[in-house]
Amino acid sequence: NAGVTQTPKFQVLKTGQSMTLQCAQDMNHNSMYWYRQDPGMGLRLIYYSASEGTTDKGEVPNGYNVSRLNKREFSLRLESAAPSQTSVYFCASSETATNEKLFFGSGTQLSVL
Amino acid sequence: DQQVKQNSPSLSVQEGRISILNCDYTNSMFDYFLWYKKYPAEGPTFLISISSIKDKNEDGRFTVFLNKSAKHLSLHIVPSQPGDSAVYFCAASTIQGAQKLVFGQGTRLTINP
């Protein structure tokens, strides 16, 4: 049972480059989330999708875009990467937006030089 | 403004003893609290939760206590085992659910043999 799968696991970008982080869940969950984790900051919500066809900004959305491609997949795009976006990114899903029990992927370590 | 704070970045406990991890919050609208556990190179996993209508919830070796008047919750692990070594995040939400989930900075627990 795969749960939440994120790709890639590691990525190094140069400032100004773009990339897309992919996330897929196989639990038939309605809601999906993108978080970033920085030292001393805990997990901060970037964007979320409460249900297929909807997306909304979280706490730190600047510099990112998202696409809820279908019920399974939720991607995060950095159009022009900046060093401040160096972080560990986690995708998560939950049965519904009101269910706080989240299931996380294993994370993407992103470095922007 | 850090609404959920874990003031101890790290904690070291001897195997078999009790581990107590603490978490403070400032938002009186929080009504649901969770603890997540994270191993290196993995995503966080849900551990235990408590609703604001309760002051204690137990699940095996794990107990969460909530003191609403002090805006404080704690996670007790008894007895502590080496496999409990991980980073623990507390999180809090309002009635709006997962899209408004706020995480603390995390506490790294090390269980020494």
Give your account of this protein's structure:
The complex is a heterodimer of chains A (113) and B (113). Chain A is an all-beta fold. Chain A has strands at residues 4-7, 10-13, 19-25, 31-38, 42-49, 56-57, 64-68, 74-78, 87-94, 103-104, 108-112. Chain A is built from no helices and eleven strands. Chain B is mainly β. Helices cover 0% and strands 53% of the residues of chain B. The radius of gyration of chain B is 13 Å and the shape is globular. The model of chain B has no long low-confidence stretch (mean pLDDT 95). The A-B interface holds A 4, 31, 33, 40-45, 48, 50, 56, 58, 90, 92, 94, 96-107 and B 4, 6, 9, 32, 34, 36, 41-46, 49, 89, 91, 93, 96-99, 101, 103-106.
Q: Which short descriptors sum up this protein?
A:
heterodimer, A: 113 residues, mainly beta, seven-stranded mixed sheet, four-stranded antiparallel sheet, globular, B: 113 residues, five-stranded antiparallel sheet, 0% helix
